[in-house]
Write a sequence for this structure.
């Protein structure tokens, strides 16, 4: 699994689009001829991956929004899976 | 009767007109019977009604969708509505002005088909001279920053070129490659004896693909769709008819799978006469094969029926004459020998029969009219 530095700024992979689908009551990730229905936390993480915010900022924002702490490990673990699947990319 | 989920996948076959004449095309062999294509406004209405039901992936296909000069309008509306738009094309007619206009309209993705890595085989199988044109289109797709998805339909006459096909894809910087073994419907069904590979060819192609995957890593994703005649369990075709997939044919007929028009005893509605919602939720044609009450043995009492839904209804019909039978690909089917006989024949050393005995039938209007008795 790829280690993710808190300073990188992940964005959605090229060709991927994230949107809320009322019919499925979920965020979905769309890509060429395919779709992933996301659970609540995956949707919350991915919608913050805009290529502008760092991983650290995203973790802070999530902790503030959901009034909790200690999310960093879970968030980066999900992000490494998402990078592996090309849902996310880190542009240089 | 049922409460289906949304038709997540909407496939609009905009036209049967196609500059290519591929011998493995899944279009119905009687496509020449289709006279009137839906108008622009009718397609836009289909898009709106489909989206309201929750459709989200849109395939624009055909025939060759680029032969419709309103393609940019259709893509534009689809994008506005929130579809992820996939253009499924031979690339013929994809000029720079059009690719630019499609980008501006919001097209998300272009799937470009190649028949082979060599000009000779590509041009022979499509009965045209198109290889170099397609190569230029591939470069345009990259230039306009689309994800590059190459689709190559595999069969007996090109499956030995898998290495070269993958190298071609690499040189075109494709992100996805679909090596889709021919599924035997439409023209491909007609030509099946000439197209089915031998067991040995298939095994070699899979080994080559796996070696290539190891070398290329994450840079390219390679999908290898096995021809299901070689399997012992059927594919979960369309995830069950009427579950997620909705096709609209050029004349507006709505189908639960792009080949389903062949199924006997069913009437499929037309979007000119009924709303997409009624068609999807209530029409008898779409409800017929939902659930499992239509199933016969061995499917009915099989624990795997929730996984493969009994396989493909069209394949059951083509091979056994009854669409409610178990897909004969399944080795529990009493008709499984129909599939294995074909595979053994294709794998025998003397196969295939010489071309003069039963020539390949190219997909064109003249042949279609002849097959339709027109």
């Amino acid at each position: 699994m790829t280690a993710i530095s808190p300073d990188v700024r992940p964005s959605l992979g090229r060709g991927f689009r994230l949107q809320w689908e009322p019919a499925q009551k979920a965020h979905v990730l769309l890509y060429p001829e395919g779709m992933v229905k996301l659970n609540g936390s995956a949707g919350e993480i991915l919608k913050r991956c805009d290529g502008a915010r760092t991983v650290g900022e995203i973790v802070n924002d999530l902790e503030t929004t959901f009034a909790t702490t200690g999310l960093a490990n879970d968030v980066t673990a999900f992000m490494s899976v998402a990078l592996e699947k090309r849902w996310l990319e880190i542009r240089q | 009767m049922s409460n289906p989920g949304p038709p997540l996948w909407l496939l609009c076959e905009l036209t049967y007109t196609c500059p290519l004449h591929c011998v493995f095309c899944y279009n119905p062999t009687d496509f020449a019977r289709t006279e009137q294509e839906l108008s622009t406004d009718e397609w836009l209405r289909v898009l709106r009604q489909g989206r309201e039901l929750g459709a989200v992936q849109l395939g624009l296909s055909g025939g060759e969708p680029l032969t419709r000069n309103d393609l940019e309008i259709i893509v534009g509306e689809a994008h506005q509505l929130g579809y992820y738009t996939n253009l499924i094309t031979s690339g013929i007619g994809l000029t720079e002005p059009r690719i630019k206009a499609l980008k501006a309209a919001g097209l998300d993705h272009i799937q470009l088909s190649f028949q082979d890595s060599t000009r000779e085989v590509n041009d022979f199988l499509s009965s045209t001279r198109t290889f170099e044109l397609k190569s230029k289109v591939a470069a345009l797709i990259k230039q306009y920053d689309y994800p590059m998805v190459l689709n190559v339909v595999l069969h007996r006459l090109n499956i030995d070129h898998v290495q070269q096909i993958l190298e071609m894809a690499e040189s075109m910087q494709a992100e996805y490659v679909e090596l889709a073994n021919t599924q035997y419907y439409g023209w491909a069904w007609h030509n099946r004896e000439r197209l089915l590979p031998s067991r040995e060819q298939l095994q070699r192609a899979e080994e080559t693909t796996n070696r290539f995957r190891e070398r290329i890593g994450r840079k390219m994703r390679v999908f290898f769709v096995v021809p299901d005649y070689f399997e012992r369990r059927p594919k979960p075709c369309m995830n069950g008819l009427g579950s997620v997939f909705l096709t609209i044919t050029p004349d507006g007929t709505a189908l639960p799978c792009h080949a389903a028009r062949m199924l006997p005893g069913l009437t499929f509605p037309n979007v000119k006469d009924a709303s997409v919602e009624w068609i999807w939720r209530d029409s008898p044609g779409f409800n017929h094969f939902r659930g499992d009450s239509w199933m016969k043995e061995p499917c009915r009492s099989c624990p795997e029926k929730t996984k493969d839904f009994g396989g493909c209804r069209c394949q059951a019909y083509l091979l056994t004459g009854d669409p409610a039978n178990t897909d004969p690909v399944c080795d529990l089917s009493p008709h499984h020998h129909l599939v294995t006989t074909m595979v053994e024949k294709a794998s025998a050393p003397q196969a295939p029969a010489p071309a003069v005995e039963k020539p390949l039938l190219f997909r064109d209007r003249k042949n279609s009219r002849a097959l339709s008795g027109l």
Notes: The two ends of chain B are 39 Å apart (CA to CA).
